[in-house]
Amino acid sequence: MADLRQDGDEAALDEARFLAAAACVRPGLEGNRSDKLLRLFDFLLKRSLEGHPPTEQQIADEVFSTGRTNTPRGDANVRVYAHRLRKVLKELPPSADGDRLVLPVGSYLLRLVTDAPEKDSDAGEIAAAVPAAPRSMLTRPIFRWSAVLVLLSMAGLAAWFALKPTDETRLVDSMPWAAISGSSRPITVVMGDYYFYESLPDAAGENRRRPDTQKLVWDRQVPTPEDLIIFQMLNPEKADRVLDTNQHYVSSGTIAGAFAVRAALRRDAVFRQREVRLISASQLSPDLLKSTDVIYIGQLSGVSAILRDPLVQASPLRLDDDLVSVTDMATGRKYRSDGVELRDEQISRRDYGYVARIPGPAGNTLIVIAALRDPGLREMAELVVDPSRLAPLRTQAVLTAHGFEALYQVRTLGSVNLGATPVFQRAIRTQGIWDRSATTPEYRPIAAPSATPR
């Protein structure tokens, strides 16, 4: 049984497993005619991640909106639905790793338990080789309640991805995986992330550090802690109102995609023998970029500079300043996402997904699995682990090229992806992409409108 309030990397890994198990629960609750069980589960999940057990009165007010106060014996509605949720959790299947969530009797904190494993020895070795995700990514306050809700709604298919059979065609026979099938290097799965810093109010004294007076800020022009130091140097009047708390945000689609790809690699007999690392983009070092085969999974806006510069050298696609569209410099064509996923299941939406393969700096390989937004990323995560859907990439142009890229248009309806239509696939330039230096931008005082409180 995992306790999310423990310290260190073990706690971070437990929370990743906790979220994967939660992703298996939510689809089962969405099938109920009433949404009360789902609302109760979401609220208890939030409080469990925070490590703060709620009272019956808090559940009644927050979940069932009774608005009642001073109810000594609690709310009977809460106990009834807690009992129903407890039964549902017992009946639902565990995650791909054998983990499930339970609600112990007399408690309103969800707990993670692991069913008796039926694993092969290879799977156990690979799991032991994957390092814990950074604590700042999963266990810090950056996973606020809204992010957790989005995570669960978007990660519901991750468990299905992990269990999906691919017996008819081996993964290693498909591009882009064939490019790394003959390598013995470790594999590094890199999740796109975003750096947040803390903004403090002008007020002095103890009130300044109260949780309700602090804001987490994502600023495109402050992508790293080092950039925050430069910001403080250039803006001394604001220097004492911003604070580096080493917090990073990873989108729900990125986490689901990373789990799907990792599970697919573990199923394939060729890749099963390879060491697999799971890290965030901010943790990718030049040494790992040189010595391992790298798989980037995330939104295009989350690509770190160490990967973005060679990708820009190779591809004519450019991410626009609005972060929701790309422009093909070769044709002048713009491809724009419709934006966030809508809860209205009657409205179709559009996103764009991207798959690329380029040679690494030392004879290794870089694979990019990305999209403009999370709906497209979920579809790409499904597509790249399905050899039958990768078959169109087995063209002569792609197979003989040192690097290629493919763009897909993704259609969604509510939280359901309707499929991906190829827009183009082509060979891309790879000669000298690691030799040219990217232009270093001049540091200037950062405009306030670029900061986005979260």
Walk me through this protein's architecture.
The chain is α+β, with helices and mostly antiparallel strands and 454 residues long. It has three domains: 110 residues, Arc Repressor Mutant, subunit A (Orthogonal Bundle), CATH 1.10.10; 214 residues, no CATH class; 56 residues, no CATH class. 33% of the residues lie in helices and 22% in strands. It is built from 15 helices and 16 strands. The chain has a seven-stranded mixed beta sheet. It has a four-stranded antiparallel beta sheet with strand order 6-4-5-16. It has a three-stranded antiparallel beta sheet with strand order 9-10-11, with no helix packed on it. α1 packs antiparallel against α2, α2 crosses α4 and α10 runs parallel beside α13.
Structural descriptors:
454 residues, alpha+beta, Arc Repressor Mutant, subunit A, 3 domains, seven-stranded mixed sheet, four-stranded antiparallel sheet
Radius of gyration: 23 Å
Fraction of residues in helices? 25-40%
Calculate the terminal CA-CA distance, rounded to whole Å: 32 Å
How many beta-strand runs? Answer: 16
Total count of domains = 3
Mean pLDDT, rounded to whole units? 75
Our estimate of the beta-strand percent is 15-25%
Main sheet properties: 7 strands, mixed
Using the alpha-carbon principal axes, give the shape. Answer: globular
